[in-house]
Amino acid sequence: MAKAPTYHKEDLRRDLLAAARAHVAAQGHLSLSLRSLAQQVGVSTAAPYYHFADRRALLLAVAEEGFAQLNGSALGIAEEPLPAADRMLALGEAFLTFAATQPRLLELMYESELTTPEIDPALLVQQSRGYRALLTVMEQACPALPPVELSVRVMAFWSTVYGYAMLRTKLMLKPYEPSDLPAETVDRAVIGQAVKAAMTR
Length: 201
Known about the structure:
Mean pLDDT: 91
Order of helices and strands: HHHHHHHH
Number of helices: 8
Structural class: mainly alpha
CATH topology of the largest domain: Tetracycline Repressor, domain 2
CATH class of the largest domain: Mainly Alpha
Strand content: under 5%
Largest sheet: none
Radius of gyration: 20 Å
């Protein structure tokens, strides 16, 4: 009889996370269970609990991975030797790309049991890193503005990009998009308007 696979502790955690992320990408987070993941990975149904206290803990780890990817991209863009407006545009476009390619993961990160009724403290830390990347660029673009004004402008820009990404992902803007322009051109124009509004002195 073939033996069940033997996992090193960290190998199993990594495999469970990979399987969970694949499940979220394909089917969303609502149907995810530790039992089904254990069967998929090929371990006992008790094994995942050595690494995740419950389903929510696993979802949190998946969401944190998503934020790490998103923030890694944002921090890299924020540090590029480009004009501030170009970096802000790139930050917005990077978020749109993430939203378009990983919509179900984004839903877990922003609109799930991890954020309702209150955002999980671990995700708040991750969101703060993304906010810091935007604020850094805004401070460089408008150094004379007081902190409160800078914060308001960052929040306005962030809200515009996030709202646009959600409406676009749900195809709610489809009836209004110019039919003679590529989607990428429309995206760039919308984000460009948000950048212009945020950086007008």
